[in-house]
From TrEMBL:
Protein's name in the database: 3-hydroxyacyl-CoA dehydrogenase
Family per similarity comment: Belongs to the 3-hydroxyacyl-CoA dehydrogenase family. In the central section; belongs to the 3-hydroxyacyl-CoA dehydrogenase family.
Domain 3-hydroxyacyl-CoA dehydrogenase C-terminal, residue spans: 200-281
Residue ranges of domain 3-hydroxyacyl-CoA dehydrogenase NAD binding in the record: 17-196
Organism of origin: Actinokineospora alba
Length: 301
């Protein structure tokens, strides 16, 4: 069934090579998914060789795990590994048809990255962004070809979560959007077209949900109580575990975006600001039996 709002699929362009800007966790998970499902070369870039090597190393390790589980054959694993490479030079994108960025969540950084990529790719190459909350229209505004920019928002863990939010910006053209839907289908995701609004749909809900839990801790609710209170709802993860999975810096960034957009509805947790400023990814840790405790270094902040 054609997703609501998707253009005719005959408008989609073929994708024979994928470029990924950023080689962090989301980017590396995406690289594996693109290589596995699209079976095309995927190039990861980042600002230094150590980051590029780490990203490619992550993909190779995950492929080894798939092979150990019998999900891919030994030959298949080697073929998959050969599809994923790293480069420091965006010229490696010159023959890519689809480039997606997953760099730091700041508009200026993303605009600069897209402007650099545009120097190397054809006028038809799709520029997709995995931003969690920023405006796709703003991201495209300084480009020569803003019509090729589209939001392509995955959820963590990328291999497992079925949803993909596809975001049409003010000037995104039908061929770009059709290509995004075709890629989403090839990745076996359930794609939905969402408006270019702060945090789109899912993060708007999740931010409120996780934010209220963390702010209730700021206000004095013991964290074990907050962590367990929602268990009877049968969620796959408690909000605090989810916060750790998403990563506190990302969650804080989205919360701040939402706070700017809707100050009457979205607050920003003081605790979260404190521990992210101290370079911590999460306050709470869980032992093997699932018992949570507060990171003593965070408690001392
Ligand atoms: N990477 C790859 N695969 C993973 C994984 C990971 N990090 N974590 C789990 N998996 C796989 C496992 O290998 C397993 O696969 P298999 O069945 O093929 O062997 C499968 O997922 C199920 O794993 P488990 O049995 O270990 O665990 P669960 O049944 O508890 O499921 C979960 C794990 C899917 C992560 C589940 O807890 C869940 O759905 N949690 C909620 C996740 C969520 O809400 N994510 C959205 C975050 S918001 C976001 O990302 C947006 C961003 O912009 C901030």
């Amino acid at each position: 069934k054609k997703p609501a709002g998707a253009p005719d699929k005959s408008l989609a362009r073929a994708v024979t090579k994928v470029g990924i800007v950023g080689a962090g966790l989301m980017a590396s998970q995406m690289a594996l998914l693109f290589a596995r499902q699209l079976k095309v070369p995927v190039v990861l870039t980042d600002i230094d060789q150590a980051r590029v090597d780490k990203g490619v190393g992550y993909v190779h390790t995950e492929i080894d795990k798939l092979a150990a589980k019998g999900r891919v054959s030994p030959d298949g694993a080697n073929r998959l590994k050969a599809l994923v490479s790293g480069s420091l030079d965006k010229a490696a994108f010159s023959d890519a048809d689809f480039v997606i960025e997953a760099v730091f969540e700041e508009l200026g950084v993303k605009q600069t990255v897209f402007a650099e990529v545009e120097e190397h790719v054809s006028a038809e190459c799709v520029l997709a962004t995995n931003t969690s909350s920023l405006s796709i229209t703003d991201m495209a505004s300084k480009l020569k070809h803003p019509e090729r920019v589209v939001g392509f928002h995955f959820f963590n863990p990328v291999a497992v979560m079925p949803l993909l939010e596809i975001v049409r910006a003010d000037r995104t053209d039908d061929a770009t959007l059709a290509t995004a839907f075709a890629v989403g289908k090839a990745l076996r995701k359930s794609s939905v077209l969402v408006k270019d609004a702060p945090a789109f749909v899912v993060n708007r809900l999740l931010t409120r949900f996780m934010g209220e839990v963390v702010q209730s801790i700021d206000e004095g609710t013991p964290f074990e109580v907050a962590d367990n209170a929602l268990e009877p709802l049968g969620l796959p993860m408690s909000p605090l575990v989810l916060l750790q999975l998403v990563g506190a810096p990302v969650a804080l960034h989205v919360a701040e975006t939402m706070n700017r957009a809707f100050p009457d509805r979205f607050g920003v947790s003081d605790n979260m600001k404190k521990f992210v400023a101290a370079g911590k990814n999460a306050v709470w840790t869980w032992d093997a039996s699932g018992k949570p405790s507060v990171d003593p270094e965070v408690q001392a902040l």
